[in-house]
Design brief:
8 strands, single chain, 3-stranded antiparallel beta sheet, 5-stranded antiparallel beta sheet, alpha+beta, 3 helices, 129 residues
């Protein structure tokens, strides 16, 4: 059982700006990793989050193959969707760098964020096109 932080996810996150993982949540069927965006805590009560969800089987198989878990973590961080067990709604998240070099993220609450290189933190959108 995992139920802590993932070393493999930490390696993926080291390559990205202003993110960190919190402890994983796990049950007999699934593991949910949480990635938090670093923000100014005086602006918001709770850090915005992205979830990376694996079935126990999927996670176990990925851990067995060299580099597979890191690859799947990266893929799920870039674009992921899941059905919220509480309300049945589809939740879509993403995390990417656009052509101009700006990092953006859509978090589990549907908010859009952009990484401010000068302030070294994420700021909430909307953003101009």
């Amino acid at each position: 059982m995992v139920a802590t932080k993932s070393g493999e996810l930490d390696l993926v996150l080291l390559q990205l700006p202003g993110v960190e993982q919190s402890d994983a949540v796990e049950n007999a069927e699934f593991i949910r990793f949480t990635v938090q965006l670093r923000i100014d805590p005086s602006d918001y009560d709770q850090p915005p989050q992205l979830f990376l969800i694996f079935s126990q089987d999927e996670f176990g198989r990925a851990r067995m193959a060299q580099g597979a878990l890191e690859s799947q973590l990266r893929t799920k961080l870039e674009k992921f969707s899941f059905t919220d067990a509480l309300n049945g709604k589809l939740v879509r998240t993403n995390f990417h760098q656009d052509r101009s070099g700006t990092w953006t993220a859509t978090t589990v609450d549907g908010s859009t964020w952009s990484y401010d290189n000068d302030k070294k933190r994420w700021v909430k959108g909307p953003f101009g096109l």
